[in-house]
Amino acid sequence: MVNRRYCAVPGCRSSSKRSPFKAFFSVPLEIEERKKWLQAMCRSPSDFSDKSHLDICEDHFNVGTCFLYSHNGGFEF
Ligand SMILES: [Zn+2]
After folding, report:
1. Ligand 1 centre and the CA of 25: distance in Å?
2. Can you give the pLDDT at residue 66?
3. 30: how many CB neighbours lie within 10 A of its CB?
4. What residues does the THAP-type domain cover (predicted)?
5. Does 71 score more than 50 pLDDT?
6. Ligand 1 centroid to 14 CA: how many Å?
7. Could you state, in order of their start, the residue ranges of all structural domains in the chain?
8. Rounded Cα gap, residues 56 and 8, in angstroms
9. Do residues 35 and 73 lie in contact, with contact meaning Cβ atoms separated by under 8 Å?
């Protein structure tokens, strides 16, 4: 049984139910990494509790205005 996943990016309504074929990526729980992801999502770390599980759908990788993904597996700013 797979938990339903929702995209945490503002304005994006993807979820594993709505878009079963989309890939979802988990935001890391490690503080510094998490900050970078949230910045890239235009969200503030204070919007979420430190331990909440957040997912981002594949739409936000390699596209978009403030979301960049580098080939070596990390975000570039
Ligand atoms: Zn999304």
Report:
1. 10
2. 45
3. 10
4. 1-77
5. no
6. 5
7. 1-77
8. 6
9. no
